[in-house]
Specification:
Length: 572
Amino acid sequence: MLEYLKKYWLWAALAPLFMCGEVFMDLLQPRLMKTIVDEGVLGLSNGGVGDLGLISTTGAKMIGLVAVGGFCGVMSGVFANLCSQNFGNDLRKAAFRNTLALSPGQTDRFSTGSIITRITNDITQVQQLVTQCIRGFVRTGMLIVGGIVCMLSLDLSFGAVIACSLPFILFCVIYFIGRANPMFGILQQKLDNVNSVMQENITGARVVKAYVREDYENARFGKANNELVDTQLNILVLFSYMTPIMNILLNASVVAVIFLGGIRVRGGGLTPGAVMAAITYITQILNAVMRMTMIFQTISRGTASGRRVMELLECSPAITDGDFEGETRLKGKVEFKNVSFGYGKTDILKNISFTVNPGETIGILGETGCGKTSLVQLIPRFYDVREGAVLVDGVDVRDYKLEALRDKVSLSLQKSELFNTTIKENILWGRQDASDEDVAKAAEIARAKDFIENSPDGFDTLVAEKGMSLSGGQKQRIAVSRSILKGAEILIFDDCTGALDLKTEAELYERLNKAEKNMTKIIIAQRIASVKSADRIAVIDGGRLAAFDSHERLLETSEIYRDIYNSQLKAG
Ligand SMILES: Nc1ncnc2c1ncn2[C@@H]1O[C@H](COP(=O)(O)OP(=O)(O)O)[C@@H](O)[C@H]1O
Ligand SMILES: [Mg+2]
């Protein structure tokens, strides 16, 4: 964390420096007050005759000090905020960058809600921690030490008051902080929960409505929110005990100063002005000690948050670059060699071996949950195999630089992820430097051009968040256009034409085959009709490769394939 702060060391040093200036002015005020009372009003060294001139010059000095102190305070605030805001900005960017570099498995483990809390609220808490450290902490620390020194320099007997009251107050501060400290970590976790429920419900608003689950979800949000409020309340209630206790101690100390001062004045050892100054000092000291609690509160909350931010920052990406730059003689060959893979303890894919030759079209069939998506996600290395190897163009995917590997692969996901921008921008995601003609051509192949051109602004029509303004089939075709535009060697369609009618789907594949002869195509489908014309079809059953052959041969040799075929024939 400190390395992010190092860059702003100058501001971090100037803030406490100016703070010293402000506190110094604060500590000078009671001294001048003493002069006004003792000399200006009481005229102690002038036989009891006051001095109006002295009152006005000292008063003017006091106003001058206030102005200088104020200026120092402003400068200290400016530098402290410059430092903490810029530090927070860097930290937030770094945390976001690292989040993007994590593997899907790692992001799942953190959960989206928690990542959002960490990058927003937690970093804000850390920023406040920085501000308090370079400003609040310095201020209160100086006030306490400086106040004690000033008070003792007025009269050493005041040391007795300090010696009695300070331990009491310190004990209170430590007690309250000790009690509250563990609650701050819990508070951030509760905030994670609130954010998670909120995020799920906003992105899944349509499902919630469709199943009329508003009451259930409201209750779920209510529960998460209540837990957050309860934790917050526990902390606040704890601290609300503190203020009255501290006030009693503070007032008792003031009375003690007056009492002791009274005795000393009567004995002639002290002036009334000095007692007044001592009252101001003891108030300043004890107020500063009290403020320490708030500062420690920010510090313990900030450290709890800091730990959470560091967890995210220090989570090193599970999937990292190899050395291979990606230059190969072969273009578009994919080999699975004895591949086993699982997300948890159990293997989802078991000992799968097959080869896809450059330019081939391969279909993948199998019932839902049998591992088709998992299988193709191993090609761009979203996950690493547990055993065996996946080879692209003859090279193990783990040896590739990730960018080089992923440049070779174009993947259209089952759930078309569209971004909140125009249709054209969404397609351009595939290849930023593509021309308008290229975009139109890709859309034409994907059978998307007609409906796009009939949209209000054509290719410039805005896609609402997550493509909510489009039908499932339209979204799929935009996503397919994007992956075609990328022009990668290996094109993978993960069940991404399932929302199209058979005729449109058949036309799409026909155009694709004609336009992109050299691309290797791997097509996951639910319907045999979608992959019937593929060169070969892999049939996955319970994570194993049950058969791998052409449609005609599979009908002869594979019982599973025949079953699927017959059931779909009956249905269709
Ligand atoms: N991110 C994930 N974490 C844990 N388990 C997963 C994940 N994705 C899929 N699975 C599990 O892996 C199995 C295969 O899923 P998947 O490959 O998506 O199947 P298919 O695409 O054939 O429907 C399923 O049992 C599913 O529950
Ligand atoms: Mg799937």
